Amino acid sequence: MTEFPKTSQNRIKRLPKRGYYDSETIYKILDEALICHVGFVENKQPFIIPINFARVNDTIILHGAKASRLLKHIEAGNPVCIEVTLVDGLVLARSVFHHSINYRSVVLFGSGQTIEDDQDKMAALEAVTEHIVPGRWGEARLPNRKELNATSVVSIRIDQASAKVRSGPPGDEEEDYALPIWAGVLPLQEMPLSPKRDELMTQNIAVPKYIAKYSRKQK
Ligand SMILES: Cc1cc2nc3c(=O)[nH]c(=O)nc-3n(C[C@H](O)[C@H](O)[C@H](O)COP(=O)(O)OP(=O)(O)OC[C@H]3O[C@@H](n4cnc5c(N)ncnc54)[C@H](O)[C@@H]3O)c2cc1C
């Protein structure tokens, strides 16, 4: 476990008691999140782009079309800010003011580089695939030369990071606790529904275990 240094950029100023800087907490949140949002500035205009990712050690892997503006921006060595958020519940307080959300979020900063080597590129694509559906890389047809050539893959070193976590019941004003208003937490979780078979499947194939038992929760 490493501790990310607190800098003027990543130090949590609002409610600092909710802040974490250790890689264990931060990486667990990253690994549970399905997607991330990448923020970058081009010609003074901020953009935020949602995208698939994987964490590999202290890096974030992104992939996409060669023509992707975001990936070109990263390949040019420009800095990015990446965030993920897991929503754990709605916090229903007695007062509107104290309504909140239980969450675990990460904000990180870094800059990246292109992964050029074919073997490294395949390993990165495997990481992204396995991040989304663990077990899929071993079953799906792997990228061919044409597909590999059409894909850009970048690796972003996590230079600075922080997590912010809210958990627990609402915190109401003392005088509001006696009000006849339901208060508490409505837990929420990202969960799959029943898999839907593609009508164009030519064979009768059972739903693989890794899909039937799919969960974002860490084992
Ligand atoms: C689901 C969800 C809902 C939220 N709703 C609200 C809301 O309605 N109103 C509100 O004011 N805030 C809300 N927050 C908290 C919000 O993310 C910010 O932390 C807060 O608004 C303070 O922003 P700031 O720029 O002043 O933070 P600062 O504390 O000044 O940020 C400094 C640095 O701390 C880090 N940081 C800040 N926020 C986070 C974070 N959430 N996770 C990880 N690192 C962080 C970043 O590196 C940032 O650059 C919500 C968060 C989540 C995840």
Question: Nutshell version of this structure?
Answer:
The chain has 219 residues and is of the alpha+beta class. The chain contains five helices and nine strands, in the order βαββββαββααββα.
* Element-level helix/strand string: EHEEEEHEEHHEEH
Mean pLDDT across the residues is 97
- Tell me the Rg in angstroms: 21 Å
How many independent structural domains? 1
CATH superfamily: Electron Transport, Fmn-binding Protein, Chain A
Structural write-up:
Strands 1, 2, 3, 4, 5, 6, 7, 8 and 9 form a nine-stranded antiparallel beta sheet that branches. The model has no long low-confidence stretch (mean pLDDT 97). The protein has one domain (16-191): Roll (Pnp Oxidase, Chain A), CATH 2.30.110.10. 19% of the residues lie in helices and 35% in strands. By secondary structure, the chain is α+β, with helices and mostly antiparallel strands. Flavin-adenine dinucleotide is lined by residues 9-14, 85, 87, 101, 103, 105-107, 162-164.
Write the layout of secondary structure elements.
Elements lengths: L18 E2 L2 H10 L2 E8 L2 E8 L1 E3 L2 E7 L3 H7 L3 E14 L7 E15 L3 H15 L12 H5 L1 E16 L17 E4 L21 H4 L7
Antiparallel strand pairs: 1-8, 2-3, 2-6, 4-5, 5-8, 6-7, 6-9, 7-8
